[in-house]
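Can't attach files on this board, so I'm pasting raw text. These are the components:
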Amino acid sequence: EVQLVESGGGLVQPGGSRRLSCAASGFTFSSYSMNWVRQAPGKGLEWVSYISSSSRTIYYADSLKGRFTISRDNAKNSLYLHMNSLSAEDTAMYYCARAWYYDLGNFYYMDVWGKGTTVTVSS
Amino acid sequence: DIQMTQSPSSLSASIKDRVTITCRASQSISRYLNWYQQKPGQAPKLLIYAASSLQSGVSSRFSGSGSGTDFTLTISSLQPEDFATYYCQQSYNSPLTFGGGTKVEIK
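---
Top answer:
Structure tokens for the assembled complex are below.
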């Protein structure tokens, strides 16, 4: 079964850091680009970051202002999100999602999602 | 960044109703538009990609149309399991952006 399982969420103090993990199984992780998407309580979806299969290409949402770092370890079938200088505005459910490319590999959609891990930033 | 605007933000409908949700992009995105369904406490689920292609395993009562800046998601005959929030998302360029969501509620 194709599966993504996020972990690492929890209560973080303002200004603190956290590392989220996403464990992949049931597919060849090293062949797929991956994303992080977040959702603040009661709000809509916000794309956070993208990393290509080889880690060669990385994108971030402008709103993150360089505080987040995406990475992956293909040998461990794992995706990571390192978050620094956290504030209340970062409180959200964080999802990892697989990218499935189409149209000659130029565009993609997110076809597999994990159940998410919750990050709460509060003192 | 490309802004995605959905309407309505919420709607009430009855079982077997035909439901239409619209999504407008702030610039042309060709057909690079995806639709997701999200139920409370669950992760989003892909319904439609490339504006009108039905994801494998998704009911055929869901359909999508449009190109350029204007897109539509249609549920042909609303079923109890369709009550959820629906999001459009453009994949034309980075940063990917989502619409604000449309919550479909029971009338």
